[in-house]
């Protein structure tokens, strides 16, 4: 059995920034306790490691969740509405924004286009935090599918942009439909980390099996999984099914929000299994919180 990484893998720069912000807050004189408004990134193992260090993650947050907090609130890499950030400031919380620079860029472009009189079509996943953080004006219309577009009223002209972590092929189909049916200005904003990982998988040599190491909640990971017909999404080494390992060539890819040590644990297990296929798949990952939070 041959085992090969499909690069790039490991954190993107936006995730590195977000994780570093939280770790620095833990180790600094930032007011405690520390709360994260939403999942910092979509990886439950990392969230668990932060919880062990005393960080309170507010999953599926509502504005009212800020009412009774003290200390520090950190907004996630997925972005945040300005109104939510201001509400936290008004509650005298110490506020830290870890929004990815690519997300902030999209917010700024949309704000500019609104002042120019455009209505906005934002292509994204419904209920995803990155999409929710963009819906700061009634003239911004979230669409996920072509069916959503068919229900949208025709306007003189739309400005069109997108969530950064979408599948590039699905997005192209939606943009093609918009081009053919709407008067629009399209600005594609797939982030480079997402694009490079998807193209690497699409253009990779033939594999009998490709493990995509990433969280089920991660749109980045789910988009990546769609790029190879033999891809299987796993969250950790514990999700490996031994029945799948009777193949000749396995590729290992990872989403931009997967801690590198989780991917390495999968790779190392497969190497060990290659040499001794009588070993059992671990029932859980054996990584420490220090390893999970490592940025190396």
Rg, rounded, reads: 21 Å
Determine the N-to-C terminus distance. 28 Å
Helix-strand topology string: EHEHEEHEHEHEHEHEHEHEEHH
Average pLDDT figure: 96
- Based on helices, strands and strand pairing, what is the structural class? alpha/beta
Strand order of the largest sheet: 1-12-10-11
Helix percent reads 25-40%
Written overview of the protein:
With 296 residues, the chain is of the alpha/beta class. The chain has eleven helices and twelve strands. It has helices at residues 13-26, 44-52, 82-90, 101-115, 129-132, 146-150, 168-181, 192-202, 219-225, 260-275, 289-292, and strands spanning 2-5, 34-37, 56-58, 72-75, 94-97, 119-123, 140-143, 158-162, 184-186, 209-213, 231-234, 249-254. It has a four-stranded parallel beta sheet with strand order 1-12-10-11, sandwiched between helices. The protein has a four-stranded parallel beta sheet with strand order 3-2-4-5, sandwiched between helices. Strands 7-6-8-9 form a four-stranded parallel beta sheet, sandwiched between helices. The longest helix is centred in the last third of the chain and has 16 residues, at 260-275. It is flat. The chain starts with a strand and ends with a helix.
Question: How do the strands and helices of this protein lay out in sequence?
Answer:
Layout: E1 2-5, H1 13-26, E2 34-37, H2 44-52, E3 56-58, E4 72-75, H3 82-90, E5 94-97, H4 101-115, E6 119-123, H5 129-132, E7 140-143, H6 146-150, E8 158-162, H7 168-181, E9 184-186, H8 192-202, E10 209-213, H9 219-225, E11 231-234, E12 249-254, H10 260-275, H11 289-292
């Amino acid at each position: 059995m041959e085992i090969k990484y499909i690069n790039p893998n490991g954190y993107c720069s936006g995730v590195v920034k977000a994780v570093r912000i939280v770790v620095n807050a833990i180790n600094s004189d930032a007011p405690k306790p520390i709360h994260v408004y939403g999942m910092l990134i979509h990886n439950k193992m990392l969230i668990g490691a932060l919880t062990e260090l005393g960080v309170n993650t507010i999953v599926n947050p509502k504005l009212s969740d800020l009412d009774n907090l003290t200390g520090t609130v950190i907004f996630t890499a997925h972005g945040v509405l300005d109104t939510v950030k201001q509400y936290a400031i008004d509650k005298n919380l110490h506020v830290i924004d870890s929004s990815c620079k690519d997300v902030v860029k999209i917010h700024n472009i949309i704000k500019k286009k609104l002042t120019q009189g455009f209505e906005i079509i934002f292509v994204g996943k419904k209920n995803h935090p990155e999409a929710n953080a963009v819906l700061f004006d009634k003239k911004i219309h979230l669409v996920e599918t072509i069916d959503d577009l068919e229900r949208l009223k025709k306007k003189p002209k739309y400005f069109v942009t997108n969530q950064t972590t979408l599948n590039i092929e699905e997005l192209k189909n939606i943009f093609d439909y918009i081009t053919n049916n709407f008067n629009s200005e399209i600005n594609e904003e797939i982030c480079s980390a997402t694009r490079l990982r998807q193209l690497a998988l699409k253009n990779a040599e033939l594999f009998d099996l490709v493990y995509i190491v990433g969280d089920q909640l991660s749109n980045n990971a789910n988009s990546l999984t769609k790029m190879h017909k033999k891809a299987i999404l796993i969250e950790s080494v514990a999700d490996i099914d031994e029945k799948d390992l009777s193949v000749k060539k396995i590729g290992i890819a990872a989403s931009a929000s997967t801690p590198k040590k989780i991917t390495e644990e999968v790779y190392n297990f497969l190497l060990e299994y290659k040499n001794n296929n009588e070993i059992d798949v671990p029932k859980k990952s054996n990584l420490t919180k220090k390893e999970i939070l490592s940025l190396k």
